[in-house]
């Protein structure tokens, strides 16, 4: 794709405007959105992403549109996995329900900033060193194996990282929340509220997930514009999706295994592409590996979509079966 500076600027302005509208809504009226409100917002953001893909198709062809849709679907599924950790953080720190929207929005903005930096760094590395694909591929395969072993995290397994523990010890933290404020006054002193610790937890979580998501998207497309927009559209609406899914998140018990398959598939794809473009002297004498197949984008889309669909259906079937068993045991 040949994306001009004007297109980049227009895209950034439009996406920033949408985020600002989101920010103004929360800042003016913090609340827990209804199912109807959340559904409308999620449908709006998904429709926006689909419409954007059509625009890419008309201006840059089916291949670029396919890369965008595949990247967006991958990043969206990884973003849903983020929600599991967000739920645990909210429960662990007892964040009042009406203020969780602000926490989620701040988390999304932080994720966008971090991913923007990683995208720029990744694009620069790939343009200079094709062997970076070996590292990205190996990292994704390693992440996939760990995800398959650990499954979805739960509150009992959540442990505060070093930055959170340091903040608790070094900063004056009040016992109670003061709305959604980060600071409060108590006995003539200015204290930080527990909301600051929550923001730190969300930010460090975003950093960890960005380390997974950026190599994954580069395994689908190396076009920085598509990488960036796929990530932005995947994160938009995540706040409303959190409230829409609600208890459904607990029922997606096989999602982590589906994501492990997706990340493993993309990791293998990256390694194969690295072999096909190999120039490392200690691998095949520095020559390209002719037998390494190229996985087309349509096949990647089918594999990713099929895997996530199977994982979701299997999760819902298993959850429904477990619920029926629990009801039967309760009855006697």
Describe this structure in words.
This protein is mostly helical and 332 residues long. It has one domain. It contains twelve helices and two strands. The protein has helices spanning 5-28, 35-60, 62-92, 100-128, 132-150, 162-170, 194-218, 224-235, 238-245, 248-251, 255-276, 297-331, and strands at residues 183-186, 189-192. Strands 1-2 form a two-stranded antiparallel ribbon. A hairpin with a 2-residue loop joins strand 1 (183-186) and strand 2 (189-192). Helix 5 (132-150) runs antiparallel to helix 11 and helix 11 (255-276) runs antiparallel to helix 12.
Topology of helices and strands:
Layout: H1 5-28, H2 35-60, H3 62-92, H4 100-128, H5 132-150, H6 162-170, E1 183-186, E2 189-192, H7 194-218, H8 224-235, H9 238-245, H10 248-251, H11 255-276, H12 297-331
Antiparallel strand pairs: 1-2
Helix pairs in contact: 2-3, 2-9, 3-7, 3-8, 3-11, 3-12, 4-7, 4-8, 5-11, 6-7, 11-12
Main location: membrane
Pfam families: TerC
Protein name: Tellurium resistance protein TerC
Distance between the termini: 64 Å
Low-confidence stretches: none
How many distinct helices?
Answer: 12
Number of strands: 2
Overall outline? globular
Radius of gyration: 22 Å
Q: Return the average pLDDT rounded to an integer.
A: 83
Overall structural class, as computed from helix and strand content, comes to mainly alpha
Name the strands of the widest sheet in spatial order.
1-2
Q: Output the helix-strand order.
A: HHHHHHEEHHHHHH
**What summary fits the major beta sheet?**
2 strands, antiparallel
Number of domains: 1
InterPro entries: Integral_membrane_TerC (IPR005496), Integral_membrane_TerC_rswitch (IPR022369)
Subcellular location: Membrane
Organism: Micromonospora acroterricola
Pfam family, one: TerC
